[in-house]
Amino acid sequence: MDDCWCPILFECARLFDVQENAPGAGGETPSYSVDSQSFIGIELCAWRECSGHNVLVLVCNNGYVLLRVLPTHGKPTIKQLKWYETRQQHILAITLDPGGEWLACSCLDGGLYLVPIISLTLECAPVHSFGVLDDVTVIQPSKKIASPTSIVWWDTMDQKHICITGSEVGEITFFDLKTKTVALSVLVSGCIDAVYLACLTDSTTYLLMGLRGGEWKRMLLEEHYHEAPDVSYADVTANDFEVVPDDVVIKSCLDQDELVDPFDLKNFSIFCQLTHLRTQDWRRQHLLTSLNLTTGKLEAYSYNFDLRLEPLNAYQLISGATDALLTDRLIYAVSHIDVVDPCSFTLSLVSTQKALVTELHDQSQGIIQQFTLPSSPDLVGFYSTEGGGIGLPTDGSLPVTHLGGCIIVTKTSVYQCRQIYCPDSIFLDMALSLKEQEKAEDFGITLKLDICGLYKRPSTVSHPNSPEGPAPSGGSDR
Fold it and tell me: Secondary structure of the chain in the HEC alphabet?
């Protein structure tokens, strides 16, 4: 918190390196390198947090793909896959299915390569089968397509499973994973750098395309609505005015045989080039966030806009912020501010309540904790997590506010920022101390705790660890 003492809530632990004989968190000594004579680095990564497990995929520059699956109650399973050695099968983009069971790789030859993660690591069958369960399934387009730059997985409302790729020449290709064919191809003007799914509501799905130069386009993929049947007044009166069931209609871009113009393709905004955009989930809403790399201002937008753009909320982060993850209570921000070592970067945990920009407040505030990570030439992946932390109460004696965490992937290492202390019990300790009562209220507001509910808890409940103690290090590989 600002200008006052802040208790420790998180730790940032290194899960593992991709270098040979590098110990990971929990005392592991993994050996993922097969060529210790050359620099082993991570080129691409993907992360998915599911109800029963989470999945991390790393594509390394030594020709291997690393799969790491962690069940909710269990230890991580790690599998190395030797990838194809030909240049045409070099992986350019990857994505995971919503269930974290399949990996889709888009390669230089334009083909789609499906890897059954769950059967290779946990030796169990996936819910959906898109090919063999012990090897890679390849889908090659009938016509040559441009080399891809990005990929996203789309499960449609009518139970289709589609992978969408974007390319340097503006070609958008829809791969149907059941029929193993290209279901649709659309050409837009410009080089596509990124593609994202945007669910405006439960009834509408869009494809967001980030073009080189900062321009963004929005394409309607599908929508479903209710259509009243053609029923006469006589039919209604004959049924004693009972409610006549309506029909559910699904309109999809995949159902159009000849797509002359892209399906409701619109320019919805033009951001400056010094802006980092990403899609995020916030308070059960799907948002697009824009981080201004010059001012450090983070703005959250709804997908429901066209040319006129107004943010829902704005947050002022520290100067030098290059990426940010927005959650309900915290913002996880990465910044490069070390002039001595420009490759090192700082992870800041910022209170959304304190960083919110208003008419009376527009300064950077609310940093509750910071970590300095070792030097790395580049940040490869940055993902928010919702899972519980380590050592939090599970006996139900005290409500636990889960603050989530994040996964950080650099060129050589994977880190996890995870919660280690319960803010509710820390709040009670502070509230019961005469010296800390004012700070307790500020602490509760900073993290949006249920202050009224916590004040009603029995006064005998106390936090077993002193918040002034040193932050623990290491920890289990969770």
Answer: CCCCCCCCCEEEEEEEECCCCCCCCCCCCCCCCCCCCCCCCEEEEEEEECCCEEEEEEEECCCEEEEEEEECCCCCEEEEEECCCCHHHCEEEEEECCCCCEEEEEECCCCEEEEEHHHHHCCCCCCCCCCCCCCCEEECCCCCCCCEEEEEEEECCCCCEEEEEEECCCEEEEEECCCCEEEEEEECCCCEEEEEEEEEECCEEEEEEEECCCEEEEEEEEEEEEECCCCCHHHHHHCCCCCCCCEEEEEEHHHCCCCCCCCCEEEEEECCCCEEEEEEEECCEEEEEEEECCCCEEEEEECCCCCCCCCCEEEECCCCEEEEEECCCEEEEEECCCCCCCCCEEEEEEEHHHHECCCCCCCCCCEEEEEEECCCCCEEEEEEECCCCCCCCCCCCCCCCCCCEEEEEECCEEEEEEECCCHHHHHHHHHCCCCCHHHHHHHHHHCCCCHHHHHCCCCCCCCCCCCCCCCCCCCCCC
Q: Give the global pTM.
A: 0.83
**Per DSSP, what are the bridge partners of residue 282?**
285
> Which residues have a Cβ under 8 Å from the Cβ of 323 and sit 6 or more positions away?
276, 278, 291, 333, 334, 379, 382
**Lowest mean per-residue pLDDT among 108-122, 207-221, 225-239:** 225-239
Tens digit of each residue's pLDDT (9 = 90 or more) over 352-374? 998 988 755 555 568 999 999 88
